[in-house]
Design brief:
mainly beta; single chain; three-stranded antiparallel beta sheet; elongated; 104 residues; 7 strands
Length: 104
């Protein structure tokens, strides 16, 4: 009936176990992208602040069922570089997003 709370993990005593395997810290990568939609046109600016290149692709989903959705070719964004990617639909754009792939 003491006032002490039990640890959340029964095996944890609050101290780091030097023999316990831990995941290495994540290697930061990936360009930061900003997308805009104006009418039927899409534009993305991607800047890579990390020391590894990043391949980016813009995917544009058109609003009309008869309008063909588009995916750009991969564009390499080197360290400390900014790239501009543009695409369009015939009419309105429903959505635009960017995908990334590490280059090693």
């Amino acid at each position: 009936m003491g006032g002490e709370a039990a640890p959340a993990d029964p095996d944890s005593d609050g101290y780091a176990d030097p023999d316990r395997a831990t995941d290495p810290p994540a290697d930061p990568s990936g360009a930061a992208c900003r997308t805009t939609i104006e009418g039927s046109r899409t534009v993305a600016y991607c800047h890579n602040p990390y020391p590894y290149a990043d391949l980016v692709r813009m995917h544009t989903e058109c609003a009309r069922w008869w309008d063909v959705d588009a995916d750009t070719a991969p564009v390499e964004v080197a360290p400390a570089q900014t790239v501009r990617i543009a695409d369009r639909c015939w009419r309105e754009v429903r959505a635009v997003w960017i995908t990334h792939q590490k280059v090693r």
